[in-house]
Write a structure and sequence with these properties.
Length: about 325
């Protein structure tokens, strides 16, 4: 049976590239050939001062991989994934193969459409309604997966704010870190990085104390009705800290973000508190099984009526996809 045509694959890759990544660095590369679609980590796009081990790049690629599978399912293709197919190549993350499905379930179409609606929202949130139902749905989605989910209690907020403060303090004199932050938030970045619309003003930043401190924007003070961030804080952790666990946690991150978006909730990934050993240890102490925290997610309710910024930019499919007659 013939596989999907190139147009279907290219469209799915374009959708996959809407996945979140550290500073919108988009550290992925796709190779399409007869044996399947191969996903590689683009080591030239790893943010070295922030992600010196490449762990966050793997999480980003895992989210893109899950997005790609969702897009292919919506096009009528079941996917199987072989992760790390070459033991001697740590940048070769996965090869995806395809089987035609008889019909496309509406849930797959809806989930693929959700990819286009999801965005990272760094502004303060209101408390999410019917949270018990949402939390139960999230746990059902990731049951028996490679990562586990903790929803931090309200009394953990102080420790989490301390972890964020410590992470900023330890990097206060790290010139390379701050230069890279400025580079990724420069307003002239056209297809990567964080545009001014994605950044916070000084007053907005004070109301979300767990966020990373980026370049301040020229915005005034949006969402004045939410004086204090009321987001629920989720922690995705793995038992260990291997490359495969980082990749898998990215796939599960995709699931959590899209499930929340389908429930009408806003989300924001938080990673700076897991980048340094000292702040990561604080977060680890807040989790149930004391594993390795990979990524935190703020979840809450954003106003239904407000000016929504344009989607953050992405590189074109031509920049991230290569077509080969064979793959060795």
């Amino acid at each position: 049976m013939a596989g999907p045509d190139l147009g279907v694959i290219a469209a799915a890759i374009e959708l996959a590239c809407r996945a979140p990544s550290l500073h919108n660095s988009q550290p992925w590369r796709w190779v399409v050939c007869k044996s399947g679609v191969h996903l590689y980590a683009d080591r030239e796009r790893v943010v070295r001062s922030t992600d010196d081990t490449g762990r966050e790049a793997l999480i980003s690629c895992g989210a893109a991989l899950d997005h790609f599978r969702i897009a292919m399912a919506a096009s009528g293709w079941h996917t199987t994934v072989e992760r790390f197919p070459e033991s001697h190549r740590c940048d070769h993350l996965a090869v995806v193969r395809f089987t035609r499905t008889d019909e496309v379930a509406q849930v797959h179409i809806d989930r693929a459409g959700t990819i286009l609606r999801r965005r990272t929202d760094r502004l303060p949130f209101r408390d999410p309604p019917d949270w018990e139902f949402t939390e139960a749905a999230l746990r059902d989605c990731i049951e028996d997966s490679w990562a586990y989910l903790d929803v931090l209690p309200d009394d953990a907020t102080g420790a989490l704010v301390e972890a964020a403060r410590l992470a900023e303090e330890l990097r206060h004199h790290d010139d390379l870190y701050h230069r890279e932050l400025l580079w990724w938030t420069a307003p002239f970045r056209l297809a990567e990085g964080l545009p001014p619309s994605a950044l916070l003003s000084a007053s907005e930043n004070r109301r979300v104390p767990v966020n990373r401190s980026f370049r301040l924007s020229g915005h005034g003070d949006r969402r004045l009705a939410t004086a204090v961030d009321q987001a629920r804080i989720l922690v995705l952790s793995t038992l260990g800290d291997t490359a495969e666990e980082a990749l898998r946690s990215g796939e599960i991150l995709s699931t959590v973000l899209l499930e929340c978006t389908m429930a009408g909730l806003a989300t924001c990934t938080v990673t700076h508190v897991t980048e340094l050993a000292a702040s990561r240890a604080i977060v680890r102490g807040l989790t149930s099984r004391k594993g390795m925290p990979q990524v935190l997610i703020r979840v809450g309710l954003a106003p239904s009526i407000e000016n929504v910024p344009a989607p953050t930019p992405r590189r074109s499919v031509r920049e991230v996809m290569e077509v080969r007659s064979d793959h060795g």
